[in-house]
Amino acid sequence: MLNPAAWMAGNYLVDGQWGLYNPLIWVIAVFSTITPSAAGFTTIVKILFLLITATGVYALVRSYNTRPAYGLLAGLSVAFAGWTFHMDAGTWVTNLEVFSYFPWVFWGLRHWAFSARRAGLTFLAIYLLITTGYVQGAVALIIGFVSILLECIAYRPARRFVIRVLLMGLAAALITITVFLPGLASVGVTTRSGGISNNDFLTANLNGLAVGSVPNARPQVNGYWSGNYVAVPITYMAWFLPALALVQWRRVKNSIPVLRGMAIFGTLMLLLTTSPSSVGPLRYPIRNLPWLTLAVIVMACVTLDHGLDPARINRRQIVLFCCLTMVPFWISYRGTPEHFKGFIVAAGAIISATLLAVMITNRMLRFSHVRSRTLGLFFVIITIAVTTTQTIYLHGTSSPFGWSLESSTKALEKPLPGAHGDVLVIGSILDLKGTTPSPNSAGTGFPPNIPSGYWTESSAANLWYLKSSVNTLNLYTAVGNSSASRDLCMETFYGFTCPDAFTKLFTKDATTGETLADLMSLDSVVVIVPANSDAHQIATTYSTPQGWHIANIGTYTVTWARDQTTPVIGSPTWSSNGLNYEIVSETPTTVKLRINSVPSEGGDIVFSRLAWPGYMARGAEIATPLRGYLLRVHVPASNTGGTITVQFRPPLWNLQVIALALSLLIWLGLTLFSIRSGRRDTRLRGDAELVAH
């Protein structure tokens, strides 16, 4: 629930993304502690979620009464679409996790709405999605529910099923309260707040979306790279989208109403994907692109299956297909003309392969349903070839970050030689000695190519979690604490600080007369050597405080350590004159003190804890935080000889527990109803036909 030693990153329920309620993440967490290779284990986990994605899309497309070949085509295409493959599977694993569950959610909701079946599996997918704790998935889930509800309303025979969807939605809403309420109740002290603005950072424009059928496009997207055009096709959806020109639309007129819900979902996701760069705490709208891609590919594959017959394709359709294929390539060429040879080869290969597949299936096969199915298999083969080619030629730039990381978990545990106890690292690897810009960051400075030797002395961002022998303040967090971040000039995502933090740590606080390092119970301070200096110069620039010594002078860092270790993080570090106490017991969430004496006007006690909302005190009262973020309690004079207990529970904790319990009860009820409904009605048709209504 709370880890005071992790400071800004230690309020796990407020952060949300730790997945504390998610059993699959529990399993991943356990195995991550015993793996010898961080890179190998990470790869296995990401492949797992890509498999969950692909199989979920396959099941969803099949639920529209579609043949297996097109379900396979959709599953492969969605899993290896641009943003999912190059960004989420490369770096943004929480977005990959929540997206992988969503096809199963939509599949289950349609079964539940139209046939009163799959309630248990549907809720399980919803539960896993929400409890991952990534708000992007929760937003998509809300839009998914709205889309299914509107589909039920639009399809007259299904209007009576609206109550089913609402009950499942109620169960989902209660889980959402459990997971996200701590963050909402604490947003006032975090760094994740703000209005609506647009700086065009990681937003999707129509130019970028227009090249969604170009496998080697360099779309126009402003992000963590140099210039306006990213080096990988992150907006790529599927090469076969122009093949919709070959469809016999009279044959799909009965399929179009079936796709109402998915069409509504796709439209809403398009609006969300192209929204401003910041809407309150929500940022980077292009992260919604996987859900838009899902909607587009599902509708395309269902339409192709129901309306594609090679024998009925005429010349006009072929010309239209060629034009629709070439136009996105022309847009790509206009943006990055230096890659024109690759665009010509890719466009020619796609057009030739598609027309060849049409010709073979038309001439060699007799029955229309066999021709359509076989053409779908040809599309699968072309998709595999396209994805393989992308991987071979773009693997070096599949992620925009160039950290030169160690892959061994043992190697990642070694940094901070000479440090002990609780540590703050000062400086930024962006200014690190020996750092050079990566190929994707020329002119921006970020992301940098880090010299490999740096990782033997220091670390960055979420890599600090692998350093088990010390506690580091510089941990990655998505929320942060605004007052602490401002006082330490710390950037929460990567844990960088400005050089002035060293001076601030050893300057006496005006209220208590103690240094900030003492108030925070720090045992070690590590300074990163900037590019314009060297370690010995840094060691002489900063004077060694009393009670400290230089523990290590390396190539990239200098370490100061206390002569004696301080009490554990979370303990009292200062009290008013005349206030005497002793610690009775202490846990990460609770501290109990016996008060031996208190001044007549009462007194204060400061703890080496962040004053998160949710702290309560018995025998004392929570006072205004010291420096805006250090927990402080006021002890009245009447409590002399008594005890005080300071305890943390997330804001509205009882409501969260009740919401979770009610959600599980509703899940149980819906599951029992689903089982009884399936047993009672033996005349029900097959799942695919039912859900396709």
UniProtKB/TrEMBL annotation:
Keywords of the record: Membrane, Transmembrane, Transmembrane helix
Transmembrane regions: 20-39, 44-61, 67-85, 121-149, 161-185, 229-247, 259-277, 289-306, 318-336, 342-362, 374-394, 653-675
Name listed for the protein in its UniProt record: Membrane protein YfhO
Organism classification: Bacteria, Bacillati, Actinomycetota, Actinomycetes, Propionibacteriales
